[in-house]
Amino acid sequence: MIISFGGNAGSGKSTIAKMLADKLGWPRYYIGGLRRQKAAERGLTLAEYNKLGETDPATDFEVDEYQKELAKGEDNFVIEGRTSWYFIPQSLKIFLDADPDVAAQRILSDMQSNNQRNEGNASTLAEIKAIAKERKESDTKRYRHYYDIDVFDPKNFDFTLDTSNLTPDEVFSIIYEFVQSKLERVDK
């Protein structure tokens, strides 16, 4: 089984994907990290790379092809990426969401913990919310243009969860229970 995570910035995708991969003993692939690496190779920030992607489809096609190939040659992994559900249609698709204020606070806390984030030099909740909004708009524009999909539409997923009022452990418990119910069906 392949489990794909999508959702909004600050919803807990990375945290929960890591926790789930660790619990299952499966590899985890992080498309955002791959995009960040590709941006750095060009001397760009992720925001600049995303903006470039609005006119240069190669910035998306490269990682999208990687996902497709990964799914052809491997099973039993967790993948986190905005388009993973689309390029790995056989995956169990999970979407996490959070209120923009809650998400911004999480991102700020993460940045203060020295974790790598995509928000650059932002230091206030207002700046983080603005950057997250701009990024979501860029992602929406690119994926609609190149693939005619809405990566933020919960209808594209098997399970959606608003994590705004939940701790990471509570989110993990809910997600793990859902995944276990699907794994049990596969094993039968």
Q: Nutshell version of this structure?
A:
With 188 residues, the chain is an alpha/beta fold. It has one domain: Rossmann fold (3-Layer(aba) Sandwich). The protein is 57% helix and 12% strand.
Characterise this structure.
- There is one protein chain.
- The chain is of the alpha/beta class.
- It has a single domain (2-187), classed as P-loop containing nucleotide triphosphate hydrolases (Rossmann fold, 3-Layer(aba) Sandwich).
- It is 57% helix and 12% strand.
- It has 8 helices and 5 strands; from the N terminus they run βαβαααβαβααβα.
- The chain has helices at residues 13-24, 31-41, 46-53, 58-73, 84-87, 100-112, 125-147, 168-187, and strands spanning 2-7, 28-30, 77-80, 92-97, 159-162.
- A 5-stranded parallel β-sheet has the order 2-3-1-4-5.
- Helix 1 packs across helix 8 (168-187) and helix 2 packs across helix 4 (58-73).
- The model has no long low-confidence stretch (mean pLDDT 90).
In total, the number of strands is 5
CATH fold assignment: Rossmann fold
- The low-confidence parts are none
So, CATH architecture? 3-Layer(aba) Sandwich
Strand content: 5-15%
Measured as a percent range, the helix fraction is 55-70%
The CATH H-level homologous superfamily = P-loop containing nucleotide triphosphate hydrolases
Output the structural class: alpha/beta
User: Largest beta sheet, briefly?
Assistant: 5 strands, parallel
* Strand ordering within the main sheet: 2-3-1-4-5
CATH class, named Alpha Beta
Distance between the termini: 14 Å
Structural domains: how many: 1
Please tell me how large the radius of gyration is.
16 Å
Shape: globular
Sequence of secondary-structure elements: EHEHHHEHEHHEH
> Helical region count?
8
Report mean pLDDT, rounded to a whole number: 90
